[in-house]
Structure prediction request, 686 residues.
Amino acid sequence: MASSRRITINDVAEAAGVSVSTVSLVLSGKGRISSATGQRVNDAVARLGFVRNHQAAALRGGQSGAIGLIVRDLSHPFYADLAAGLSEALEQQGRMLFLTQSGSGGQYRQRCFDSLLAQGVDGIVIAGGGDDGGLLRAQAEQHQIPLIFASRAAYPDETEAVRPDNMQAARLLTEHLISRGHQRIAWLGGRSASLTRAERLGGFCATLMQYGLPFHSEWVLECEATQRDAARQVVALLRHNPTITAIICHDSIAATGAWFGLLRAGRYSGEGGMESYFDSQIALAAFAGVPEAALDDIPVTWATAPARDIGRSAAAHILQWGNDRAKTPGCHTVPARLVLHQG
Amino acid sequence: MASSRRITINDVAEAAGVSVSTVSLVLSGKGRISSATGQRVNDAVARLGFVRNHQAAALRGGQSGAIGLIVRDLSHPFYADLAAGLSEALEQQGRMLFLTQSGSGGQYRQRCFDSLLAQGVDGIVIAGGGDDGGLLRAQAEQHQIPLIFASRAAYPDETEAVRPDNMQAARLLTEHLISRGHQRIAWLGGRSASLTRAERLGGFCATLMQYGLPFHSEWVLECEATQRDAARQVVALLRHNPTITAIICHDSIAATGAWFGLLRAGRYSGEGGMESYFDSQIALAAFAGVPEAALDDIPVTWATAPARDIGRSAAAHILQWGNDRAKTPGCHTVPARLVLHQG
DNA sequence: ATGAAAGCGCTAACAG
DNA sequence: CTGTTAGCGCTTTCAT
Prediction:
């Protein structure tokens, strides 16, 4: 049964008693083929165990059916989820995904790009990091191949990109807290240079305004990316501003640190198993890079950056771009989702 | 600058004033080419911005340079790390990775397999799930393409596979505890039907024997995959066996649950910030599917299943198999690493 | 509705 | 050392 030679469309044609072009037409479902012939061909295909050589098809026909992805490092949950969503969406369309990693510093990006080009991909998705002065975009244009950025950073206007909606995420969190009756809300974490943080703060501020609540800039704290610093800041903040009832945290580290800080200060949040010395409770809300199951036990309301949705969206956009050429590039934004804490 | 036609090896040949075969030889570095000609060709390549069409090369030459990976779901950290290691190792060899997801139940596995075959991959790595009665292995053999399994399950002897060394991981943990002076060690978690658990228990038991310590089967507890159940079990266990000084947990859920249980029972572990009612401490050690940064704050010594190493190893084996045909398949085992808790 | 033939871009014999 | 030539497996006009 194990014939050494590879089975080709010629073998199928012979077995079905038709010509190769007929087989090709049946396979791609293009030409008008009588159902009888179609049947015969399909039988032969099944009988011989023929698998179409997609490379040869691409060589002649054009489309390879593969999309390339460049991520910095797949072991980062955000990129893993993004890749998962991308691959899922592509496979639903019968496409395939070439995965490459550009290194945690993005140092191999050009190499990845070139490899993907050489493999004849129909499009490239770059996740993480910006375009170095439009270099990649220029190359992609030269080779007439769709290129799209998908990550948390911002891009020049002419760049096709998919990114999370930071303002909307902040609005989500803020409205949630307000709807729970909180009016004095603080902000913890992030660096002021961060654009992501700026956008989130914008959404936060806008929502406060919308509900007629004041924005206290002295309640907005930067903090280092350590639980220790977050805990320290929370304790200090609450000591000086005891009327605060809720805190929005920039990330899961800040949130966890804040929780420990609250525990230490005797100001716990939610109905956790710990006892509190005070009746008052501080509500915690936070942004998460990704849904984090391990943090289930901390009473925090999360707004998750929808990495998987971003991947799906990137897939949709790059495929659409492949069909409909000469469209104007732009930035597409993907909304966050609220994940309530399971009491 | 944006010429519409694709640049081929012919253009390069013409520009360099040589023949196509010379260019091909320079590109693949095979034939003995005078350095002068080589230089001219490389110049032309650079000047024209030529990118080699790998599909055409594969069509003629055989090797596509791509390896296919089938994982159940990339958003699972174990598979993500595995994929990361695999892709990393492949790219170092100038290979590429096709990524496919077979769905959380593995329901699309056959489809993934077929797609990869059609793309002409040089080998396939299947992560997660076993071979349905050798079906996939048979197909791979028929198409003469290396197939290797990489996951935590066990496989029939004739199957080429890479998996974590569960016994070694258990020995690592057990020896660690013993070296810290623990002699009365309990086991928490997992289901008795699990082979992984059986192997780990084997390593645990063997190490106890080796150090002349008794194995108490009544200190080995099954438990549900919830923190709640783990906590409950720990409390009950310690109530009835107050001399126990250490617990090995089957996974991070059991470990986290155990920690909460210890806190509740007033038997905390490590130098955490909580107060204890008793002087005695219970040491916690556990197996982790993957290094979990979020759990840094729980005082547990982890043995991590080296997902990334498994990916790397799978890459090495499948590439080697590609070169050296007709080797006997077998199971390769990858050691775990100890991750001590950062006091 | 189907067949014949001309390549896609590249590599691998052979010649020179 | 380098050029000529014949395809790899498939798609796609153009005939029939």
Notes: Chain B has three domains: 1-52, 64-163+309-334, 166-304. The longest helix of chain B spans residues 307-323.
